[in-house]
Design brief:
It is a single chain. By secondary structure, this protein is of the alpha/beta class. The chain contains 12 helices and 8 strands. The chain has an 8-stranded mixed β-sheet, with helices on both faces. A hairpin with a 6-residue loop joins β1 and β2. α1 packs across α2 and α3 crosses α4. The longest helix has 15 residues.
Length: about 300
C-alpha cells in the first residue's frame, strides 16, 4: 500500500534579503523565474486558493477541540486550551484535516482521556462546519449568491488564462474529495478542471498532493519545470518546489478580500520556498506574462 503521509511544516528559507514587485502590481517576486519553456501543467489548491465557501473554518475547529479537551477534566483554563489548540491547528493547516484530528487525539490521551479513532473527530468537525456554511451553499445552489462572490478574486481569470495558453490544470485539496467535487461544481469551476479534481479520502495514508504531482509527471512524461503550482497552504508549495516546479503562494485575505496579502500566510509560504507571492488573482494577466517570459525586455 502507498504511504503518502504529509510531513509537518519545516521552515527551509530563514531569511529573504530582497524581493521586488512587478511594476505597477502587488505581485511580489521572491526569486526570479526564467523558464526555458513555459509551464504545461498547473496544480491548484482549493480552499483559500480558489474557494471561499469554507472561510472561517478555524472558528469551528478550534472551539470544538477545546470542548473535547475540557471533557477530559483537565484543570487548564479555556483560554489556555484555546491558545494551545489554535497554535497546532494553524501549524498543521495545509495538510489533510485528519492530521489535525490525530493531534487532537494525542492531546486527549496526554490528559488521561481515551480518544476515539481520529476519523470520529473529523466527522464531528465536518458536521459542525457544514452547518456553519449551509447558508452559503444553499445561496449558491439557489442562485441567490454569485459564485464569484465566494471565490478568491480573479480565480476565473487565472484559470481561463492558463487554458488559453494550452496549460492543463489540476486541483488537489486536503478537504474530502466528495465535498471538493460538489463545491467545484457549485462555483462553476468543473469546466476548467474536468476529471482532474482530487481530494482527501478516509484512507489518508494513500492520498497526498505529492501523489497527485507524481501522477502528473508519470502520465505526461514531464519533469519539474513544466509544472506551476498555486496555493495558500504550505504543503502544495513545499511539494511543488521539491518536485522542481515553480511555486506561486496565494497569500489570500479570505475574510476581507482586500487585495492585500495576509502577512502570516506570506511568511509561512516564503519559508517553504515560494517563488512568487500574490494576494489574489486580480493581476493574473501580468502574472502570466511574467511566467511566460513576455516581460523579459523590461525586466531588471
Amino acid at each position: 500500500m502507498i504511504d503518502a503521509r504529509e510531513r509537518d511544516y519545516r521552515r527551509q528559507v530563514n531569511e529573504v534579503t530582497s524581493t521586488r514587485f512587478l511594476p505597477g502590481t502587488s505581485i511580489e517576486v521572491i526569486r526570479d523565474v526564467r523558464l526555458a519553456t513555459p509551464p504545461k501543467h498547473a496544480l491548484f489548491d482549493f480552499d483559500g486558493t480558489l474557494s471561499l465557501i469554507r472561510e472561517g473554518w478555524p472558528q469551528v475547529m478550534v472551539p470544538m477541540m477545546v470542548s473535547v479537551l475540557r471533557e477530559t477534566g483537565t484543570d487548564e483554563s479555556p483560554e489556555r486550551l484555546h491558545e494551545m489548540v489554535h497554535a497546532f491547528v494553524m501549524e498543521l493547516n495545509g495538510k489533510q484535516t485528519i492530521y489535525q484530528m490525530i493531534r487532537l487525539a494525542e492531546e486527549v490521551a496526554k490528559r488521561g482521556g481515551k480518544p476515539p479513532d481520529p476519523l470520529e473527530y473529523k466527522r464531528r468537525y465536518l458536521s459542525l462546519l457544514l452547518e456553519r456554511i449551509r447558508v452559503r451553499r444553499e445561496a449558491l445552489a439557489s442562485g441567490r449568491t454569485s459564485p464569484d462572490g465566494l471565490m478568491v478574486p480573479g480565480s476565473r481569470d487565472i484559470l481561463r488564462g492558463l487554458l488559453d495558453r494550452g496549460v492543463r490544470i489540476y486541483l488537489a485539496s486536503g478537504t474530502d474529495e466528495k465535498y471538493v467535487m460538489e463545491e467545484v461544481r457549485m462555483l462553476g469551476l468543473d469546466k476548467y478542471f474536468g476529471p482532474s479534481v482530487y481530494g482527501a479520502i478516509d484512507d489518508y495514508k494513500s492520498f497526498s498532493k505529492q501523489t497527485v504531482i507524481d501522477r502528473i509527471f508519470r502520465e505526461n512524461g514531464i519533469q519539474g519545470p513544466a509544472l506551476v503550482g498555486f496555493g495558500d497552504g504550505y504543503v502544495e508549495i513545499d511539494n511543488v518546489k521539491a518536485s522542481g516546479g515553480t511555486a506561486v503562494a496565494v497569500a489570500s485575505d479570505e475574510a476581507g478580500r482586500s487585495g492585500r496579502p495576509d502577512a502570516w500566510k506570506r511568511d509561512r509560504l516564503v519559508g517553504v520556498g515560494a517563488d512568487i507571492v500574490i494576494p489574489d488573482f486580480r493581476e493574473s494577466g501580468a502574472l502570466l506574462k511574467y511566467l511566460w517570459g513576455e516581460d523579459a525586455p523590461d525586466a531588471p
